[in-house]
Structure formats: structure tokens, C-alpha cells
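User: Need the bound-state model for E4V:
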Amino acid sequence: QFHMIKYEDLRWCESLGQGSFTRIFKGSKIDIRDGERHVTDVLLKELDANHKNCWESFFEAASLMSQISHKHLLLVYGINVMVQEFVKCGALDLFLKREGSVSVSWKLDVAKQLASALNFLEEKNITHGNICAKNLLLAREGDASQGSSPFIKLSDPGINVAMLVVLDRIPWVAPEVLEAPERLELECDKWSFGATLWELFNGGQAPLQGLDLERKLQFYETYKQLPSSEWTELADLISQCMNYQPAFRPSCRSIIRQLNSLITSDYVILHAAEPLPD
Ligand SMILES: Nc1cnc(-c2cc(N)nc3[nH]ccc23)cn1
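Assistant: Bound-state model below.
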């Protein structure tokens, strides 16, 4: 399901950093189509040498994303080195930390786009397994004053990880996944959607940041919820998604319906632009 890309058609440009098992570079891919030379910006994701053994899960993560296409799902072009479309503005968590103040309607717009990507995956009965702000890429920042809205792309889930790193993904990873990491079900993505919504409305700050592994585990063992927003309807949606009973989590259609009613609530008008954090 991948069309082959030849190495000589790829150019490696600057390094953009390292993931836990991968190195990422900005690059470009040359295609000759009907006699014309097309250069496309790409992101090159290499599996680092001493993790060649998780090659197959690297492959399965990518091949999952290459079999389906949706406007809010990242394009994956190739695999021996993973060649992804280059999404200009990078990861949402870094953007939110940098930006500080984006409007409530900007945030709800992003939340709706993520919900529509999740709805699409749910219809295909595909579990992403790693929904978080770091995996949301901003193709267009959107500028409230110009009235142009943001546009996000959900990135690949990355390598399905050893238990340790699963723990490191508390509170994005659903509690039931800790019991059985191989039993990733659709409801897990609803839990992670709730945690990502929390990030979105808390300036991109990671929930439970700074808690050590022990305290993160206690958070689940004592059925804790994340600190709730003063906006009760938003806090309700987040806690519905982060229900410890997977079956009680809302469907994507319900999530989208609730987001739509949040968008029309007067809270949005009262909070057109968040004050800059002091
Ligand atoms: N598929 C992707 C993934 N990440 C980017 C990206 C964009 C950017 N402006 N800075 C970055 N810094 C690290 C990654 C990255 C682009 N495309």
C-alpha cells in the first residue's frame, strides 16, 4: 500500500530533533510526474540503529496510516525511512506553550477537527492508541484577527511501546491499557481525547506534569480526575471521556454534538481571547 520512493529521490535537510526511538529531519521528495519535476516538503523519521528490532511495529504504525486517507490524518509516503508530509507549524503542544493566548473558539475548532478524525477512525474500527497534543500537527496556525482558522493533522501513533513508556504516557493512556497493553480498543482513544482536550485548554501543559511514576499510577488506582476547568460544560465533557469504565465513554457523535453546543455557548463570547498568562 506504499508506492515505492527511491533513496535518490529524497534530500535530507536540517535535523528537527529526536523522538524516543527515532530521529526526525526536514527533507524533500522529488517526483517526476508527467514529465515535470515536483519537489515536496517531507518529514523524514528514521528508526535509530539500536531499535531496529521494533521495525515491524514502526512499519505497522505507518502502514495503518497509509491505508486510509482523511483531510485531518497525516499522509505517510514511505517506510524504510518513514517519509511523512511536512506539516509547517509543527506539534500543537509546543505551539500552545509558545503562543500562550489563543481564543476559546480557536481551541474548540481544533477539538472538533480531532473529533472528526477520531470519528473517521472509529468508523473504520481503527484505534490510534496515542492521541495527545504532541501528535497533533498544525498545518495552518489560523489567525483569529484575520478570521482564518487553524488546521490540524493527526500524526502516526509512533512505535507501540514497551510497558515502561506506556506508564510514561499516563494520563493519556487509558487505565485499562495498563492492565492489558495488547488490548487496545476504540474506547482508549476517547480517554486520550479527554486528556488532549485538557492540554488544549491548559496552554499545552502536560497533565500531571512533574508527578513521578508512583504518583501517576496512584492517580489511576484511586480513580482520580484531572483538575477541572471552571467552564463546567467543558469539564463535564473531559470527565465523560476520561470515565474509568470504557463503555461509559461517549461516542464520537456525542463528543461532536457536545463540542457544537460548547461552541454556541456564551462562555465563548465572554472569553474571545484568553488573557496572557501573567
Ligand atoms: N510530519 C511532521 C512532523 N513534524 C513537523 C515539524 C514541523 C516544524 N515546523 N518543526 C518541527 N520540529 C520537529 C518536528 C517539526 C513537520 N511535519
